[in-house]
User: Fold this.
Amino acid sequence: GPPRTPFVTAAPVVGAGLTPLAVKLGVSFTATPEPFTLPFFPEESYSRGESAYRSGDMAQAISLLKEALAQNPANYSAHYLLGEAYLQQMDYNKASGAFASALRINPGFAPAALGRGQANFGLGGNPLLDYDKAAALAPQWVEPYIQRAIFYSSRRNTSAAIRELEAGQMLAPNNVVVLWRLAEQYANAGWWDEAIATIDLALSADPTALDMYRVKASVDVAAGRHAGALESLDLYLAYRPGDAEAWTTSGLAHLGQGNTLAALTSLNRAIDLKPDDPREALIARGRAELILGNPDLAGKDFDAALALGVATRYWLQIGRAYYFVGDYPSAAVQFQKAVNGDPTQFDAQYWLGAAQVGAKDYATAIISLGKALDRADSDGQTFDALYQRSLAYEGADNGSKATADLNALLLLNVPDRERERSAAALLLKEQGGTAPRATVTPTASP
Assistant:
């Protein structure tokens, strides 16, 4: 379902004694104004209900707004806020009814159309008709673009989500919600430079945008900047300690730093928070258990994750966990499942071949890595597959083909492959060859 619509609170996110983030950071900024001002209705219970909603007391808000509607059934703002309160409680049927009531009274009220779409999404339906209606009713309002992006992202349609958010940014260049969601989608697409630039833009517009620190941490982990990720997460989790996804990212950052016990602490916290989808945390904890020499505990976590739903990326994550502790046969089993799940994917074929090289199953590795090369769509992927296949040819005593692969990969000017390039040049020298100079313009992202 959709994320619950954020509401504005006057208090900090947690704890009355928590220093407001702007004070903690020593910054001042102009907050993005609310796009809609709800019309005035005179009922006292309505104004009290609105105050309860904005303070986060949904039960009290619902009670007061119902009282206001008993006094004035034509108060479409009360119907709308009632729908928003039900969204917060994830009672999507009641939310849909409240938004529909608001639209019957005022068919041109865009927030109610958007809310009805969110409720429909929460019920498993397609919200796009309502989102499109909201956009048509309020062409300068950015929220329909955000919600359409959320829907597309839930369908793993990253390109469509990026398209919506880039269009939203044209309408509202400094809207931090648009910016952090856009940075998140850029990261999902592997567009790290764009993600980092968008994060910088968002933090310059509003350094108190907490979600941006979470997204920044995820990007930093993916880029191997684990210390920076932990710095962002220390700030973020001080204000949102109940965010299981952030604790999972913290665990991954600690794993990246080699601090396995700290990783376990973060990942246990993530799992204890009972997120809707704990698979990432379970697999990461299994990885930590493997590093600590507890394969049985790791296997239980991996099985628990896959019991919630299998996917190629989870088999890849589990396979890499085994691969990086040197258990190549177990890694190959998982990578073979990934290949069976999606034989068109480069990563699945590549990692299967790499694990087979590690297990000294050279003949099979040569076949897998040939398939990976057929699926490579960047110089970086081609470099990696050629390097592994050269090792397989070397292991199979086929020096001429190993030399051909080494020569081919050394012609590729790929950044961040210095270690592999040096190893390839050394292998070539041992075979009596001379390393060629790279002439290809770098196009790969590592």
